[in-house]
Every structure is written in C-alpha cells, then in structure tokens.
Amino acid sequence: MRKHLLFREVNLRIHELTGPEGVMSGWRETLGEAVDYACECADLGCTAHVPLTRDKFAEIVENPDYYVVAPGHYPGYAEIIERELDYAVVMIRGDARVPARVP
To answer: Distance between CA 103 and CA 96 in Å, rounded?
Structure first.
C-alpha cells in the first residue's frame, strides 16, 4: 500500500472519531477549530500534522485524486491544486496516481 493511501485511511478514522458521533467529539473542534490530520505525502518518515477544519477535510476528500500535505511536502509528480499557509492540496500524476477511497 502506498503511504498516501495508508494515511488517507488514518485521516478518515480521525475524521470519524472527531465527528458528532465519534468518541472524541468536541476534541479541538469547538467553534470550527482545526483538527490535526496526518500529512498524506509519500515520505515514509514524515510525521507532520496538517491542521484543517472537519469541513475542509471533507471537501478535499470528495475528490479521490486529492491529498492533503504539509507545506513543501509535494513531490515532483504532484500538481498543486491549492496552497495555503498550513497545508497544500495536491493531485498525484502519472504512474504514482492511485485514487483514494471516498468516504
């Protein structure tokens, strides 16, 4: 399994656990605060966190080709779709492209 797919699964679980029905509901999500999601870059040693609201994460993962990464964590084979101060949304191109599961 490619690292970005593994961490997408981790992030989907974080999203589930921090939601209204999750065991961690309210955890850092009061008044739209960011939740720390895992960077979905390809670096196996990466431990960066990406702060996003749950709504923003849900918007990103609607497209199975989009991954959320920490600033500067985009490889040469990724197209930057959106770049913000705390994160970037990338689309992986070419042979490395494997769409993620859509929740």
So the answer is: 21
Tokens for 59, please give them: 């918007």
pTM score of the predicted model: 0.79
**pLDDT tens, residue by residue, 79-98:** 899 999 999 999 887 555 55
Confidence class of residue 43 from pLDDT cuts 50, 70 and 90?
A: confident
Angle at 94 between CA 93 and CA 95, to 5 degrees: 125
Radius of gyration of the chain (CA): 13
Asked if 25 contacts 14 with a C-beta cutoff of 8 angstroms, the reply is no
Distances (CA, A) of 89 to 25, 27, 61, 72: 25, 24, 10, 11
